[in-house]
Design goal:
Elements lengths: L1 E3 L5 E3 L5 H18 L3 E10 L5 E12 L3 E3 L1 H11 L2 H23 L6 E5 L2 H5 L3 H12 L6 E6 H4 L3 H12 L3 E7 L5 H7 L4 E4 L19 H16 L2 E4 L5 H10 L3 E2 L10 H13 L1
Parallel strand pairs: 4-6, 6-7, 7-8, 8-9, 9-10
Antiparallel strand pairs: 1-2, 3-4, 3-11, 4-5
Bound molecules: ligand C2E and calcium ion (3 copies).
Protein name: Diguanylate cyclase/phosphodiesterase
Organism: Dactylosporangium sucinum
Length: 287
């Protein structure tokens, strides 16, 4: 694999694959993107399955590259994590989402949009300034603590003492924590006891195919087994749930039958600009 040496020449480094080099190049561009306002935040509504009312949003970052066009987070978040740029990037998304959620609350009333979710990477949880950054974003925006949901994945949470302390501190501040992509990790169950989550987000992979009737009696239906187990566990532990990746009305119906009340997915609402969320909330106010 090639890598730029100290003097700027390209040398070959054992064990450093092409992805690392690609991450370093992308990292340089990302630094520039942060300075040049090329990053935007879009919002995907979270809806009540029963009546399709919006109860929250998840903030999702977008990169509008001047020559390459729109770049998806899956392509640059790993590079941002590897280079540490996820810290300023995450701070930008957090501040923007808090400011926007506070603006919605002022315009449509505090109950119009109870929750704003922001994704947080493991690297951010290791940053000693993270708790102070979150506190500052809340104070500067005026958003009440309980309106902010920080979404963390199981692998991020499993990073030891420091991360655990940070999560308990956020919980003590009244900020809500969601376990993202729930069910895809290796120790979901033990984590739920050890970690101050109040929300679990059922991963899309357990929603895929959930509507297919394979002729089994419901209780023996393997396609629904994980979704059913997760909702039972959530109820037993007093946690809220959100089903992710809901792509059809049939899936929404099965999830409702299983006891899920909240959903997120292309069938319910696509990620959209803040202006489009405002339009949705304005329409909802009339209902
Ligand atoms: P995630 O946190 O699981 O976010 C949900 C992803 O699923 C989003 O992709 C969303 O657009 C997509 N999605 C929503 N509904 C559907 C559906 O019905 N079908 C399908 N196929 N996909 C759906 P997106 O925006 O491309 O983000 C991908 C991942 O990048 C996110 O997954 C999250 O892990 C990460 N990410 C996005 N924004 C941020 C950020 O600001 N900070 C950090 N640390 N990570 C972020
Ligand atoms: Ca998420
Ligand atoms: Ca997720
Ligand atoms: Ca995911």
């Amino acid at each position: 694999a090639k890598q730029r040496g100290k003097a700027g020449f390209v040398r070959y480094v054992d064990g450093l694959g092409e992805p690392v080099l690609a991450h370093m190049q992308l990292g340089g561009e990302l630094r520039r993107a942060l300075d040049n306002d090329e990053l935007q935040v879009v919002y995907q509504p979270i809806l009540r399955l029963e009546d399709q009312r919006v109860t929250g949003v998840e903030a999702l970052v977008r990169w509008q590259h001047p020559t390459r066009g729109a770049i998806r987070p899956a392509e640059f978040i790993p590079a941002a994590e590897q280079t540490g740029l996820i810290v300023p990037l995450g701070r930008f998304v957090l501040r923007e989402a808090c400011r926007q959620a506070a603006a919605w609350s002022a315009e449509f009333g505090p109950d119009a949009l109870p929750e704003a979710g922001v994704n947080v990477s493991a690297r951010q949880l290791h940053d000693p300034d993270f708790v102070a950054d979150v506190a500052a974003a809340l104070a500067d925006s005026g958003l009440p603590c309980e309106r902010l949901v920080l979404e963390v994945t199981e692998s991020a949470v499993l990073r030891g003492q420091q991360v655990s302390r940070t999560l308990f501190e956020l919980d003590r501040m009244g900020i809500r924590l969601a376990l993202d992509d729930f069910g895809t990790g290796e120790s979901s169950l033990s984590l739920l006891r050890a970690f101050p989550a109040t929300i679990v987000k059922l991963d899309k992979s357990f929603v895929d195919g959930i509507e297919i009737d394979d002729g089994q009696p419901a209780a023996a239906d393997a396609r629904r087994a994980v979704a059913r187990a997760v909702i039972q566990l959530a109820h037993a532990l007093g946690l809220a749930t959100v089903a992710e990746g809901v792509e059809s009305p049939e899936q929404a119906a099965v999830l409702r039958e299983l006891g899920y009340t909240l959903g997120q997915g292309y069938h319910l609402a696509q990620p959209m600009t803040a202006e489009d969320v405002s339009r949705l909330l304005a329409r909802q106010r009339l209902d």
